[in-house]
Design brief:
- By secondary structure, the protein is mostly helical.
- Among the domains are: about 110 residues, Serine Threonine Protein Phosphatase 5, Tetratricopeptide repeat (Alpha Horseshoe), CATH 1.25.40; about 140 residues, no CATH class.
- About 75% of the residues lie in helices and about 0% in strands.
- It is globular.
- The chain contains 56 helices and no strands.
Length: about 950
């Protein structure tokens, strides 16, 4: 190392010290880092640079980085008191009290006269002693609970209680620490092999999950003790509760390795992912390889596909490309082509939801193929799978190919359309539909339904397939008849909601709907038949006449609710789309009168809305759905990972919340929790719809009732997301109203609004031309000014106070009222804000307007503002005395003391007394003495 480098490093250190003195921690860290890079290892100077950077990290509360720097410094100079003390501070902040106490003790031993360390040593000594006692008690409790829980001769009640106590212990940091060091992980693994009690079994899995929540190092210990196959083993069950618990446990493992959390919009921590890459890759590879395991249960298969879907996106673990490379697409296609009808030894166990979940997962993978090369690779994998199946001449292969294509048309639609467009594929499907084999007819019928997703495709199928579908509808097999009926429904609805475009004869859709209704109310309550009936209605309810008949049919509505409450993902499309149509919650193209005239002139087709789709009819239908308890149906279906389905659910929720009387029903039936999730994850339109539904609830209901506990904070981000230029005026207004109610709840809520950068967005809308939006923003800001941090923002170098003063003169009395309230709050909290009132040219006009206002509430705000200004300083009181404000105050102080004006009289009198104290006005009678 040359002299120049030594001098340069020293220069950086001195600049870093200067930045540190000026509280510029970021710059200080950058400068110390430069000094470190210029200095060779093991020199005393390097120890100083690391020690100094640790001090800056401590100021930023980045305790892990500070700890690392202190360790490096102490490796060079082992007993440096400053490095020891800074490490002690970092360790204490990280709750590593025993190690912090060790460092404090070392400093005291080396220098007993060190006064800085003495209070720290005393504090840590007390904490360490308390922790030692607590740990001893926890250790004893752990030992006794383990003894009872793992003793199969004990009574079931005692063992259940002991396991629940162990679960509580696993949630505590100290408890988890002791449990990891004990043999509990191995004992739970051993116990679950023989445990017959389902509650104890599930609690055992939960304990494993809780232990893994305490960081990646503890998770590695758990994984080492039980192994990945154990997780897959406990997942393999037909018990839904066990499968859900095991799935949650496996997600917790992935979260610990990546830094993600079990909530929407969570993102991994890059350094953690890089550190644990090997473990993450191994775990995800095992999940992918297990997806088409013939031996596992259908529920376990669904859980594995959901885990893959939830973690591979580029916003999560960015693993889609690796999944394609290791054969994941082919494995998922196997799941997507599986049929419950083929029951033999090598058949997979599947649930009614498996093919739907696999289709959504394939769509999610395709979303991540963001380069043409990757898209081609994905397409080649799909084509190879189809080709391999078709090389085998047997009927089963053709059936499986058709089922796989149907899944693609319900997942990555572009891929499905490409495949069905290949030469001979559509012909093969139509031939299968024309055979006498019921299974071939059934799967071909399903594929025709899925293929008719675009108008051009629908026309082609209308020409080729209508007669086939009509023929199939005459079948004695009800499963086949309902599918043929749905095909006819979809083709019959290809004109959409345009009343002027209907491919079938008038009245046909109503007859088809009546046929669907009969199947929906099937006496045997066959789930498969009812599911297809709901899908048929989802196409037909684009017709306004069908909507009106269905909404008045209570048994049919109840059947839809019951169907949805099963949570079966394959019923989701039918039920939710039907609801979207009934509420008219689909996206409508704005119709501009000039464009209609232009279209008429050009002889272009003009869409026509049916008279039964007028707002009054829509409102009536929404109210009917709300009263039929459809919220419970939406809550059950909202666990889907399909973003498009989540958008549809959000649209229905928003339609329900557009009616005041249904908002309480949505809250009572668990809608808020689901809406928060929908507002944070999904398509942009879906998130907006869910956020608006939440805002509507927040406007008319007490937020403490509608959003109890933590939820009041969770709804803030969705509300603020609506304060965006892309959102319409109604969304802006409703969001501001809801935020206004949240802001008055507590300082914690106001701090969350500030953290989510809500202040600048709310302020922006105070300048809006629209009267209602400006009013809502001003009212919201008035509540925000109860926060000290917001007051400091008004005190800064800006014109905020000046604008509030001018708003007091606003023509809209509610806006002026909110501005006057805000002015009263900020002048009462800050002398600087009182001074800034006089920056406005309109300050006297505003005070006149308030003090002489016919509304007592406005007068009250005005006298409060004047009182605040007078009490703030003599100089400001003198400014007021130069005007006629004192005369107005005197007049107000002499008003009759009726109930409305009592407070005004009291404050006006107090303001005059304060002015007397400053000596800016004289007491009554003093002027006579001077004469």
């Amino acid at each position: 190392m040359g002299t120049n480098e030594v001098e340069e490093a020293q220069k950086y250190k001195e600049e870093g010290n200067e930045a540190f003195k000026n509280n510029n921690w970021d710059l200080a860290i950058k400068l110390y880092t430069k000094a470190i890079h210029l200095t060779p290892n093991e020199t005393r100077e390097l120890s100083v640079y690391h020690k100094n950077r640790a001090a800056a990290y401590l100021k930023q509360e980045n305790y892990k980085a500070a700890l690392e720097d202190c360790d490096k410094s102490l490796q060079i100079v082992p007993s440096d008191p400053k490095a020891l003390f800074r490490r002690c501070q970092a360790l204490e902040a990280l709750d590593r009290y025993e190690e912090a106490y060790r460092d404090a003790t070392q400093i005291f031993k080396d220098d007993p006269t060190n006064k800085t360390v003495q209070p720290v040593l005393e504090r840590l000594h007390k904490v360490v002693q308390e922790r030692a006692i607590h740990n001893a008690q926890t250790s004893s409790k752990l030992e006794s609970m383990m003894k009872i829980a793992f003793d199969l001769t004990e009574t079931m009640d005692k063992r259940e209680t002991a396991m629940n106590n162990l679960l509580v212990l696993a949630r505590e940091t100290a408890g988890a620490e002791l449990m990891i060091k004990s043999t509990i992980v191995q004992q739970i693994k051993k116990l679950l092999k023989v445990e017959k009690n389902k509650e104890i079994f599930i609690t055992g899995i939960r304990i494993m999950g809780e232990l893994c929540k305490h960081g990646d190092e503890k998770t590695k210990i758990v994984l080492k003790d039980v192994g990945i196959p154990w997780f897959l083993e406990i997942l393999d069950s037909n018990d839904e509760k066990q499968v859900n618990t095991a799935e949650h446990c496996m997600q917790t493992v992935l979260n610990s390795f990546s830094g993600m959390e079990n909530k929407p919009e969570t993102k991994p921590k890059e350094e953690l992912v890089e550190k644990n890459k090997k473990h993450i890759d191994t775990l995800l590879t095992c999940l992918v390889y297990s997806v088409n395991n013939r031996a596992i249960s259908g529920l376990a298969r669904d859980a594995l596909i959901e885990l893959i879907m939830r973690n591979i996106h580029y916003n999560q673990l960015n693993w889609a490309e690796q999944l394609v490379d290791i054969g994941g697409v082919e494995r998922l296609m196997e799941c997507a082509s599986e049929l419950e009808e083929y029951k033999y030894e090598s058949a997979m166990n599947i649930t009614p939801s498996t093919r739907t979940i696999a289709a959504v997962c394939l769509a999610r993978i395709y979303e991540n193929m963001y380069f043409d090369v990757l898209k081609d690779k994905f397409m080649n994998k799909i084509q190879d799978f189809i080709k391999d199946k078709l090389l085998t001449p047997d009927i089963e292969s053709k059936v499986r190919v058709t089922v796989a294509i149907t899944s693609l048309l319900r997942g990555p639609l572009d891929i499905g359309n490409t495949i069905i467009g290949k030469e001979g594929i559509m012909e093969m499907i139509l031939v299968m539909a024309n055979t006498d084999d019921e299974l071939q007819q059934k799967v071909a019928c399903e594929c025709i339904i899925a293929a008719a997703s675009k108008a051009d495709k629908a026309k082609a199928i209308i020409n080729q397939g209508v007669n086939i579908l009509k023929q199939l509808y005459k079948s004695k097999n009800e499963h086949l008849r309902i599918r043929a009926l749905v095909g006819l429904c979809k083709l019959g609805a290809s004109g959409g909601s345009d009343a002027s475009l209907q491919p079938f004869a008038e009245g046909s859709t109503v007859k088809l709907a009546e046929a669907c209704r009969r199947f929906l109310l099937h006496p045997g309550k066959d789930q498969d038949i009812r599911k297809w009936a709901a899908e048929g209605l989802s196409y037909l309810t684009l017709d306004a006449e069908v909507k009106e008949k269905l909404v008045e049919d209570k048994p049919a509505l109840q059947a839809l609710v019951e169907l949805a409450k099963t949570g079966d993902q394959s019923v989701l499309f039918g039920v939710v789309t039907t609801l979207v149509n009934l509420c008219n919650a689909y996206e409508k193209q704005e119709v501009i009168p000039e464009m209609i005239e232009l279209a008429k002139f050009a002889k272009q087709h003009i869409p026509q809305e049916h008279e039964l789709d007028d707002p009054d009819f829509v409102t009536k239908r929404i109210l009917a759905l709300g009263k039929a308890n459809f919220t419970t149906a939406l809550v059950a279906l909202a666990k889907t990972e399909s973003n498009n389905s989540r958008e549809l659910i959000s649209r229905v929720f928003n339609a329900l919340c557009s009616e005041h009387e249904l908002r309480g029903v949505v809250v009572a039936q668990g809608g808020v929790k689901v809406l928060i999730s929908l507002a944070l994850k999904g398509t942009d339109k879906g998130k907006r719809q869910a956020a608006q539904a939440l805002a509507r609830i927040g406007i008319t209901m007490n937020p403490e009732v509608a959003f109890p506990g933590q939820r009041a904070l969770e709804v803030i981000r969705p509300f603020i997301s609506l304060l965006h230029p892309d959102c319409n005026g109604l969304e802006n207004f409703e969001s501001l109203m809801a935020l206004c109610n949240i802001a008055q709840m507590s300082e914690v809520a106001r701090q969350r609004i500030l953290k989510e950068e809500g202040f600048s967005k709310i302020e922006h809308y105070m300048f809006e031309d629209h009267e209602y939006i400006c009013r809502a923003a001003t009212q919201c800001m008035c509540n925000m000014t109860q926060s000290e941090e917001v007051i400091r923002m008004f005190e800064g170098e800006n014109d905020r106070v000046k604008y509030v003063v001018s708003l007091c003169l606003d023509e809209d009395k509610d806006t002026a009222m909110a501005a006057a309230g805000m002015l009263a709050i900020i002048t009462g909290a800050s002398k600087k804000c009182c001074e800034k009132v006089f920056d406005s040219k309109n300050w006297l006009d505003s005070l006149h307007c308030l003090l002489a206002n016919p509304l007592a509430s406005m007068q009250y705000r005005g006298v409060c503002v004047v009182y605040n200004i007078i009490t703030s300083s003599k100089e400001l009181s003198e400014k007021l005395i130069e005007t006629d404000i004192m005369e107005i105050l005197m007049a107000l102080s002499k008003l009759p003391l009726d109930s409305q004006e009592k407070q005004i009289v009291e404050i006006a009198s107090k303001a005059l007394e304060e002015a007397e104290k400053w000596g800016v006005i004289k007491k009554p009678g003093e002027e006579d003495e001077d004469d």
